[in-house]
TrEMBL record:
Domain of life: Bacteria
Alphabetized InterPro entries for the sequence: CobU/CobP, P-loop_NTPase
Protein name from the UniProt record: Bifunctional adenosylcobalamin biosynthesis protein
Broadest EC class assigned to this enzyme: transferase
Transmembrane segments: none
Keywords: ATP-binding, Cobalamin biosynthesis, GTP-binding, Kinase, Nucleotide-binding, Nucleotidyltransferase, Transferase
């Protein structure tokens, strides 16, 4: 495995699966976090996820500059776990950044990254069409990103109810 894309719904087991796969590599693990703690509930989630990972994990915060973080930390002796791409898209969207340009840069970085890379994202396109324009734009941007990441990843796993289904 050089690059693995793990996608699934909320609470599907994506993060647990990705972490287990990263730890199974025996490489030095680096967690690239895209979340931003805007409220107490999110702060508690972040703390819980950090505790689940353990002290052997290095954590890098990259809410916006994801490609740069991957480029900086990727190496043959490391496994990078990015969690998650939909939070990254959210950060770009609410900051009014150029999402297509950021996605192009990310895909180029994934393609040339040295070492092992695991990317996690939420599948948001299986439900109803959102009611408002911002939510529809988010769903569309996430879907376009997922297509691009799946195309360049060496392996793609879908998680549902804690079970994985290999697509690629």
């Amino acid at each position: 495995m050089r690059s693995l894309f793990v996608i699934g719904g909320a609470r599907s087991g994506k993060s647990r699966y990705a972490q287990a796969r990263a730890e199974a590599t025996g490489l030095s693990p680096v967690f690239i976090a895209t979340a931003q703690a805007f409220d107490e509930e999110m702060r508690n989630r972040i703390v819980r996820h950090q505790a689940d990972r353990g002290v052997e994990w290095e954590t890098v915060e990259a809410p916006l500059k994801l490609a740069e973080a991957i480029e900086l930390h990727a190496s043959p002796d490391r496994v990078l776990l990015v969690d998650c791409l939909t939070l990254w898209v959210t950060n770009l969207l609410i900051g009014d950044h150029d999402i297509p340009a950021a996605v192009r840069t990310l895909i180029e970085t994934i393609t040339v990254a040295q070492g092992t890379l695991i990317l996690v994202s939420n599948e948001v396109g299986l439900g109803i069409v959102p009611e408002n324009q911002l939510a529809r734009r988010f769903r569309d941007e996430a879907g376009f990103l997922h297509q691009r990441v799946a195309a360049c990843a060496n392996e793609v796993q879908l998680l549902c109810a804690g079970l994985n289904l290999q697509f690629k």
